[in-house]
Known about the structure:
heterodimer; A: 494 residues; alpha/beta; Amidase signature (AS) enzymes; 2 domains; eleven-stranded mixed β-sheet; B: 101 residues; mainly alpha; two-stranded antiparallel ribbon; 2 strands
Amino acid sequence: xxxxxxxxxxxxxxxxxxxxxxxxxxxxxxxxxxxxxxxxxxxxxxxxxxxxxxxxxxxxxxxxxxxxxxxxxxxxxxxxxxxxxxxxxxxxxxxxxxxxxxxxxxxxxxxxxxxxxxxxxxxxxxxxxxxxxxxxxxxxxxxxxxxxxxxxxxxxxxxxxxxxxxxxxxxxxxxxxxxxxxxxxxxxxxxxxxxxxxxxxxxxxxxxxxxxxxxxxxxxxxxxxxxxxxxxxxxxxxxxxxxxxxxxxxxxxxxxxxxxxxxxxxxxxxxxxxxxxxxxxxxxxxxxxxxxxxxxxxxxxxxxxxxxxxxxxxxxxxxxxxxxxxxxxxxxxxxxxxxxxxxxxxxxxxxxxxxxxxxxxxxxxxxxxxxxxxxxxxxxxxxxxxxxxxxxxxxxxxxxxxxxxxxxxxxxxxxxxxxxxxxxxxxxxxxxxxxxxxxxxxxxxxxxxxxxxxxxxxxxxxxxxxxxxxxxxxxxxxxxxxxxxxxxxxxxxx
Amino acid sequence: xxxxxxxxxxxxxxxxxxxxxxxxxxxxxxxxxxxxxxxxxxxxxxxxxxxxxxxxxxxxxxxxxxxxxxxxxxxxxxxxxxxxxxxxxxxxxxxxxxxxx
Lengths: 494, 101
């Protein structure tokens, strides 16, 4: 392979094309990506665990399938997984000490589907502990660094996934998005991140954080790859009763999208261009929207008046659900155990030693708001305001087909900048949280960079199950904005 | 309505809630969590200004109800697989400290 150095930088679609043309074998491709991880992940810290033997075995199996004339959408394509997606026999620790030593006893439905499609699973990607955070600094195993500027965060909670894809040490990755955890890191790292409609992708085997908000989705180098991965992982699953039985957009929905946006009505929510927003972020996003208008889209302002309540609703709903979901970590069936004389004390010590400060903070808030006397005032009221937020979107979508907005009010912030101010960290998620509360689909795609070189993301938000509309518009815009930019490469062995 | 919480009580509330959540927090961690709880509660209190009379709560984003499957036996985890991650097990069972004297 004369172009070995670039192999890890291929998109999924390019890799499939070259594998099909027999320019490279699955084993050679996997080796090249594993070498890139070994050479460069020391500078990024995207992976918590890499199983080279398992990856190479899967690659050999893919080569055998191909030699038999078998074809599958991801046959031989190396992909990384966020550390909260179960992969049988592999660690699935959610970047938490409390799951020390835990290995998943079964495959998540998305993993089963990736395997059936021929994907080669590379390893486990860093994240904020239990997906609680926006910077990957809440990982018990240390932060991941932003490949564009290693003094800055990659975003979170799928920070390892976004950094690995941007730094070309994975062709693509799966992450999860509860309040922006795919879109925000994609925006900070300059890659594409898709949060599908709630229920579009099975959550079976995704370690639960906030069950009414969590959704698995792809982080990729192109919109086309996001569409391709979605077509593999989406669809009704009997193992997840919230998964939806709806036709899944075809794999080529982005590739075959027209260049024009003629006839598309794009709404700009005035509340999403918030005071105090970084001027360069706003300028880049407005330039991308002007590009959409050049392509024929009709752009108009719309109102989402309950936006200012979204963060409060989110932190009540998500923490209440997490306090219930994380009750299972008791040191009995898996993970860490801190022994004590009686079982109640053992629970308390195990959980105090195993959870990090942000997880404890959210369990405390969630337990507080669900405790006797407070349920109506906090949780129930939040669920009602959630209805008002959903109605805002329903009204807006009577006037437009898609919403366009920034992903975050600022570009990637510095490591340590927000760690002592949880509320400020939460407020940074105001532009991504509403899509989760309303169950919409949304995508972040690169829209240029700031003067200091940090990526800026454009967010498109579509009604439930309108991923095809979302991906077509994103593909046309991506083409108009030119080829993907790559961060500088730093060699530092893992 | 939301009860008022004087700051002096919040440390006690954190202790009460930590016990409910089975988190054995050391005393030195209590003030910080109390301070964070106070700030976050102050922020979420803005929801009180909205009139939600007659508004249905959204528990799930999509209107999916009563999802059933056929009630048939299917293979699940084996006992060995289920115990493989246990910190302690004996005779095919999870082992915990004595509960009854």
